[in-house]
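Blinded run. Sample ID left blank on purpose so nobody reads anything into the name before looking at the predicted structure. Input follows.
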Amino acid sequence: MARSAGTTFLRASEIRRRWFVVDAADQVLGRLATRVARVLAGKHKPSWTPFLDCGDHVIVVNARRVRLTGRKEERKVYYRQSGRPGGLKSRTAAEVRSAHPERLVESAVRGMLPKGKLGRAQFLKLKVYADADHPHEAQQPEPLPAALAPAS
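Blinded prediction complete.
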Protein backbone atom coordinates (compact mmCIF):
# COMPACT_ATOMS: atom_id res chain seq x y z
CA MET A 1 0.00 0.00 0.00
CA ALA A 2 1.45 3.35 -1.03
CA ARG A 3 1.91 6.03 1.59
CA SER A 4 0.77 9.56 0.93
CA ALA A 5 3.32 12.35 0.78
CA GLY A 6 1.67 14.13 3.71
CA THR A 7 0.60 17.68 4.15
CA THR A 8 2.94 20.54 3.37
CA PHE A 9 2.51 23.81 5.23
CA LEU A 10 3.46 27.32 4.33
CA ARG A 11 6.63 28.69 5.91
CA ALA A 12 6.47 32.03 7.69
CA SER A 13 9.08 33.42 5.27
CA GLU A 14 6.84 32.62 2.28
CA ILE A 15 3.88 34.73 3.43
CA ARG A 16 2.97 37.59 1.09
CA ARG A 17 0.68 40.22 2.56
CA ARG A 18 -1.57 42.54 0.56
CA TRP A 19 -3.49 45.61 1.68
CA PHE A 20 -7.24 45.90 1.14
CA VAL A 21 -9.59 48.79 1.80
CA VAL A 22 -13.28 48.32 2.65
CA ASP A 23 -15.93 51.03 2.67
CA ALA A 24 -18.27 50.31 5.59
CA ALA A 25 -20.88 52.89 4.56
CA ASP A 26 -24.37 51.34 4.53
CA GLN A 27 -23.06 47.81 5.15
CA VAL A 28 -24.50 45.61 7.90
CA LEU A 29 -21.99 45.35 10.74
CA GLY A 30 -21.99 41.56 11.18
CA ARG A 31 -21.69 40.77 7.48
CA LEU A 32 -18.88 43.27 7.10
CA ALA A 33 -17.10 41.82 10.12
CA THR A 34 -17.20 38.26 8.75
CA ARG A 35 -15.62 39.38 5.46
CA VAL A 36 -12.90 41.33 7.26
CA ALA A 37 -12.15 38.56 9.80
CA ARG A 38 -11.82 36.01 7.00
CA VAL A 39 -9.23 38.15 5.19
CA LEU A 40 -7.34 38.97 8.41
CA ALA A 41 -7.07 35.25 9.20
CA GLY A 42 -5.97 34.43 5.64
CA LYS A 43 -8.76 31.92 4.99
CA HIS A 44 -9.33 33.38 1.53
CA LYS A 45 -5.91 32.10 0.41
CA PRO A 46 -5.26 28.57 -0.85
CA SER A 47 -2.06 28.61 1.22
CA TRP A 48 -3.92 29.17 4.52
CA THR A 49 -2.19 27.50 7.43
CA PRO A 50 -4.14 27.14 10.69
CA PHE A 51 -1.27 27.92 13.06
CA LEU A 52 0.33 30.81 11.13
CA ASP A 53 -0.74 34.41 10.73
CA CYS A 54 -0.93 34.39 6.93
CA GLY A 55 -3.72 36.95 6.48
CA ASP A 56 -3.69 40.33 4.78
CA HIS A 57 -4.02 43.88 6.10
CA VAL A 58 -7.50 45.45 6.00
CA ILE A 59 -8.38 49.15 6.20
CA VAL A 60 -12.02 49.90 7.04
CA VAL A 61 -13.19 53.44 6.25
CA ASN A 62 -16.52 55.17 7.03
CA ALA A 63 -17.04 53.14 10.21
CA ARG A 64 -19.37 55.88 11.44
CA ARG A 65 -21.86 54.96 8.69
CA VAL A 66 -22.01 51.18 9.33
CA ARG A 67 -25.56 49.82 9.66
CA LEU A 68 -27.07 47.97 12.59
CA THR A 69 -30.25 46.04 11.89
CA GLY A 70 -33.38 45.95 14.01
CA ARG A 71 -33.27 47.85 17.29
CA LYS A 72 -29.61 47.11 18.03
CA GLU A 73 -28.76 50.81 18.01
CA GLU A 74 -30.51 51.27 21.35
CA ARG A 75 -30.59 47.69 22.70
CA LYS A 76 -27.11 46.30 21.98
CA VAL A 77 -24.87 46.88 24.99
CA TYR A 78 -21.07 46.96 25.10
CA TYR A 79 -19.44 46.16 28.44
CA ARG A 80 -15.98 46.84 29.81
CA GLN A 81 -14.54 46.05 33.24
CA SER A 82 -11.80 48.03 34.97
CA GLY A 83 -10.76 45.06 37.11
CA ARG A 84 -11.84 46.80 40.31
CA PRO A 85 -14.93 45.92 42.35
CA GLY A 86 -17.94 47.71 40.88
CA GLY A 87 -15.93 48.65 37.81
CA LEU A 88 -18.35 47.31 35.19
CA LYS A 89 -19.27 50.00 32.65
CA SER A 90 -21.87 49.62 29.93
CA ARG A 91 -22.76 51.66 26.84
CA THR A 92 -25.34 51.18 24.13
CA ALA A 93 -24.31 50.95 20.49
CA ALA A 94 -25.60 54.49 19.88
CA GLU A 95 -23.36 55.86 22.64
CA VAL A 96 -20.34 53.95 21.31
CA ARG A 97 -21.05 55.20 17.78
CA SER A 98 -21.19 58.82 18.90
CA ALA A 99 -17.97 58.66 20.97
CA HIS A 100 -15.77 56.10 19.11
CA PRO A 101 -17.49 54.75 15.95
CA GLU A 102 -14.47 52.64 14.98
CA ARG A 103 -14.94 50.51 18.10
CA LEU A 104 -18.18 49.05 16.71
CA VAL A 105 -16.27 47.44 13.83
CA GLU A 106 -13.23 46.54 15.94
CA SER A 107 -15.36 44.78 18.54
CA ALA A 108 -17.30 42.77 15.95
CA VAL A 109 -14.15 41.67 14.11
CA ARG A 110 -12.22 40.86 17.30
CA GLY A 111 -14.99 38.49 18.38
CA MET A 112 -14.68 36.54 15.11
CA LEU A 113 -10.92 35.99 15.32
CA PRO A 114 -9.23 33.20 17.29
CA LYS A 115 -8.74 33.82 20.98
CA GLY A 116 -5.09 33.91 22.06
CA LYS A 117 -1.76 34.95 20.63
CA LEU A 118 -2.62 34.19 16.99
CA GLY A 119 -5.87 36.16 17.08
CA ARG A 120 -4.14 39.15 18.67
CA ALA A 121 -1.51 39.13 15.92
CA GLN A 122 -4.21 38.96 13.24
CA PHE A 123 -6.17 41.80 14.86
CA LEU A 124 -3.14 44.11 14.63
CA LYS A 125 -3.51 44.06 10.83
CA LEU A 126 -6.93 45.76 11.08
CA LYS A 127 -7.06 49.56 10.71
CA VAL A 128 -10.45 51.23 11.24
CA TYR A 129 -11.25 54.89 10.55
CA ALA A 130 -14.49 56.75 11.23
CA ASP A 131 -14.33 58.80 8.02
CA ALA A 132 -13.29 58.22 4.41
CA ASP A 133 -9.64 59.27 4.66
CA HIS A 134 -6.80 57.10 5.97
CA PRO A 135 -2.98 57.45 6.20
CA HIS A 136 -2.15 54.22 4.32
CA GLU A 137 -1.96 55.43 0.72
CA ALA A 138 1.74 54.46 0.56
CA GLN A 139 0.73 50.79 0.89
CA GLN A 140 -1.42 51.13 -2.26
CA PRO A 141 -4.49 49.35 -0.86
CA GLU A 142 -6.89 47.80 -3.33
CA PRO A 143 -10.65 47.43 -2.82
CA LEU A 144 -11.63 44.15 -1.22
CA PRO A 145 -13.14 42.03 -4.03
CA ALA A 146 -16.62 40.58 -3.56
CA ALA A 147 -15.13 37.19 -4.46
CA LEU A 148 -13.38 37.14 -1.07
CA ALA A 149 -16.71 37.27 0.74
CA PRO A 150 -17.66 34.08 2.61
CA ALA A 151 -19.98 31.67 0.83
CA SER A 152 -23.60 32.20 1.84
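Unblinding after everyone has recorded impressions. The first helix runs from residue 29 to 41.
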